[in-house]
Amino acid sequence: MAKKSKKQQSGGTPATVALTAAGTAYTLHAYEHDPASPSYGEEAAEALGVSPDRVFKTLVAEVDGELTVAVVPVAGSLDLKALAAAVGGKRAVMADPAAAERTTGYVRGGISPLGQRKRLRTVLDSSADGHATICVSAGRRGLEVELSPTDLTALTTAVLAPIGRV
């Protein structure tokens, strides 16, 4: 069993540990998560007072049988055909939630594109480039991390592509 770092023991998540280890500038935003909320991302945008086009949700899909992470604005949805095309695949479907949780090490509604248990191919919606900073899950429901899209792309080796639909 891996030993937790001091940061993890004091409430940090694998995502914040990864950001700190990389020396990346970020701002952590915590809010009171309502388990009855129908949309984790929209709840985060509202709680933080941030436009939904700047808050991005992390979704896990299967592209030709390979788990792939899609990061899209909470204001829209994921275009599965565009995701497949972005990684040179033919077909994409949403991943089984249990497989997504097991592979990333995070629970649904708290999956972060950062600090995942197994590094997966990642595609960030190109709309992120229109913002100085965006918010993504910090690895726990009720916790978001704000960082530059450039830093997120570099840390996840993401491909930028128009994969979101309004």
In short:
The chain is of the alpha+beta class and 166 residues long.
Descriptive notes:
By secondary structure, this protein is an alpha+beta fold. 27% of the residues lie in helices and 28% in strands. The chain is built from six helices and ten strands, in the order ααβαβββαβαβββαββ. The strands form three sheets. The protein has a five-stranded mixed sheet with strand order 5-2-3-6-9. The longest helix has 9 residues, at 14-22. The protein is globular, with a radius of gyration of 15 Å. 42% of the residues are buried.
Low-confidence stretches: 1-10
Class of secondary structure makeup:
alpha+beta
Helix-strand topology string: HHEHEEEHEHEEEHEE
Question: Portion of residues in helices?
Answer: 25-40%
Q: What's the number of extended β-strand segments?
A: 10
Number of helices: 6
User: In percent terms, what proportion of residues is strand?
Assistant: 25-35%
Mean pLDDT: 90
Span between N and C termini? 43 Å
Q: Any idea what the shape is?
A: globular
Strand order of the largest sheet: 5-2-3-6-9
Q: Could you give a short account of the major beta sheet?
A: 5 strands, mixed
Q: Report Rg.
A: 15 Å
Pick out its properties.
five-stranded mixed β-sheet, globular, 166 residues, 28% strand, three-stranded antiparallel β-sheet, 10 strands, 27% helix
What order do the helices and strands come in, and which of them pair?
Blueprint: H1 6-9, H2 14-22, E1 27-30, H3 40-48, E2 56-63, E3 66-73, E4 77-78, H4 80-86, E5 92-94, H5 97-104, E6 121-125, E7 134-140, E8 143-147, H6 149-156, E9 159-161, E10 164-165
Parallel strand pairs: 3-6, 6-9
Antiparallel strand pairs: 1-8, 2-3, 2-5, 4-10, 7-8
